[in-house]
Amino acid sequence: MAEKVSGGPMDAGRFAALADAYGSALHRWPPAEQAAAMLFAETERGRAILAGAGRLDAMLDRHRVEAASPGLHRAIVARAATEVSQKRRRRFWWLGFGLAGVGVAGAVAGLALVTVVSPDIQADHYVMDANTTSFGDAGPDADQAEEDL
Questions:
Q1: Closest CA to 27 of 62, 59, 57
Q2: Tens digit of pLDDT for each residue in 11-56?
Q3: Contact 27, 34 (CB under 8 A)
Q4: How many Å separate Cα 86 from the centre of its chain?
Q5: How far apart are CA 123 and CA 118, in angstroms?
Q6: Which residues contact 5 (CB under 8 A, 6 or more apart)?
Q7: CA angle 26, 32, 35 (to 5 degrees)
Q8: Whose CB among 36, 69, 93, 104 lies 3.0–4.6 Å from 8's, allowing a Cys bridge?
Q9: Dihedral of CA 47/50/56/61: which sign?
């Protein structure tokens, strides 16, 4: 059962959660919670929670992280440079795939448009072959045909 402070909305669960998150120094807690926390801190349960948080704060304050060795620093920088160049290369390839996809989509759309819009060729119409232009025959026999005229 949660212990409530008379006149304050803070209960032991909320107080313990805030102490775990912000430590035992109430001035570090969110300003909206400080007034109710100060009231709850005066209770026996509040003092016990703050004492536990204070022990954790002291342990964390004693902990020191050593600086990285020069070799580790060089390895991290080299790896980062490799990652950046690989990312740029992948972006370039995806851009190429995208442009190729747009080209294929345009060709398919154009083919579909020509297929739908162009009328069917009737059997009684003259079909031009590879050697014929709209101005006449352009094949190797064209010179001979013009001389015969």
A1: 57
A2: 899 999 999 999 999 999 999 999 999 999 999 999 999 999 999 9
A3: yes
A4: 16
A5: 15
A6: 36, 39, 40, 42, 43
A7: 55
A8: 36
A9: negative
